[in-house]
């Protein structure tokens, strides 16, 4: 199946890129002391957050990176990063809005990645993998560039897990006969809702250490389980 069969609407792609750029700028603007970033640094992090997911998606699918086929992607990411930096104080007071946008961005990139993979002929499981990589790719690149621990590898509020569930629901809906557009909308809603609920109720996957303690306690009946 040819690559041109599936085309993500430019406006939708740019919305995701712009929101990602704002998020990257807000993240970068929060550093103080020796880690603080200048104008160029904030812009670069915004571009990485806005375009990273799409680049990783297309590299995995072995197709020409969509974000490099138009001037608008770089301009949108850079402009959104500058806007996020200039309005950082205002955005930080609207924390609930930022959390909601964060959840929506994860859903958008995950849905776009999974949908494109399915239409290009990938099986369900690899397509979901591509979607998750697209959803979390920008954040991974951001952390690597800034020399920080990769956030999704540590205890958090179902960041990658929300994307995985949403992408899986999307893929199953498409396999059951739903149109790609409808399946994508369903996937975005599922990812966004799960991520928001996880943040609101502070839900996360169990820590590896906690799992090990429970395993030993069950096997030996000698080590008490410490409840949080």
From TrEMBL:
Presence of keyword Membrane: yes
Alphabetized InterPro entries for the sequence: Gly_transporter
Keywords for the protein's UniProt record, in alphabetical order: Cell membrane, Membrane, Transmembrane, Transmembrane helix
Main location: membrane
Signal peptide range: none
Domain Glycine transporter, residue spans: 10-87, 101-173
Residue stretches spanning the membrane: 6-27, 39-60, 72-91, 96-114, 120-141, 148-173, 179-205
Membrane topology: Multi-pass membrane protein
UniProt record similarity statement: Belongs to the UPF0126 family.
Name of protein: TRIC cation channel family protein
Organism: Microbacterium ureisolvens
């Amino acid at each position: 199946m040819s690559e041109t069969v599936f085309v993500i609407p430019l406006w939708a792609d740019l919305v995701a890129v712009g929101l990602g750029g704002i998020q990257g700028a807000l993240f970068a603007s929060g550093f103080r002391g020796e880690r603080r970033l200048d104008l160029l640094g904030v812009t670069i992090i915004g571009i990485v957050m806005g375009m990273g997911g799409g680049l990783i998606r297309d590299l995995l699918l072995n197709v020409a990176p969509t974000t490099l086929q138009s001037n608008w992607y770089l301009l949108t990411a850079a402009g959104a990063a500058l806007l996020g930096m200039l309005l950082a104080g205002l955005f930080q007071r609207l924390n609930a809005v930022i959390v909601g946008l964060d959840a929506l961005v994860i859903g958008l990139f995950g849905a776009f990645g999974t949908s494109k993979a399915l239409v290009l002929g990938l099986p369900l499981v690899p397509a979901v993998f591509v979607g998750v990589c697209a959803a979390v790719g920008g954040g991974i690149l951001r952390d690597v560039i800034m020399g920080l621990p990769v956030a999704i590898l540590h205890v958090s509020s179902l960041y990658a897990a929300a994307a995985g569930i949403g992408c899986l629901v999307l893929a199953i809906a498409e396999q059951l006969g739903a149109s790609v557009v409808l399946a994508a909308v369903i996937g975005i809603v599922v990812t966004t809702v799960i991520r928001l609920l996880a943040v609101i109720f502070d839900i996360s996957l169990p820590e590896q250490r906690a799992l090990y303690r429970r395993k030993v306690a069950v096997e030996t009946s000698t080590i008490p389980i410490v409840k949080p």
